Amino acid sequence: MITVYGIKNCDTCRNALKALKAQGREHSFHDLRADGLSEAEVTRWLQSAGWEKLLNRRGTTWRKLPEAEREDLDEGKVKRLMLEQPTLIKRPVFEVSGEVVVGFDAAAKERLEKLCAG
């Protein structure tokens, strides 16, 4: 079973869900805004993917952060920011058999294929 974490109005999340459905992959969707986010989930993702990969610096949430919040980043600060504002998390985040995949680019798609096949 694949768990997809994201937000409903994210184009990349919608594309990922559509692709999973087309492939017949069993999955569930966890909306970060509606369903919330636990510290344990963020901790697991940070340990697996690293904060640099998990942090979405391209979105409006990042751009709206005060300059002081965007400086001197470390894992603890990024974790706090993500818990306060889940849209700072790069989307989608997939969990498959305890493994974490972030994003839906070619490399992420390839890794998902391998995880689902194995």
Automatic annotation (TrEMBL):
Superkingdom assignment: Bacteria
Coiled-coil stretches: none
Pfam families, A to Z: ArsC
NCBIfam families hit by this protein: arsC_related (TIGR01617)
Family: Belongs to the ArsC family.
Protein's name according to its UniProt entry: Arsenate reductase
Organism: Denitrobaculum tricleocarpae
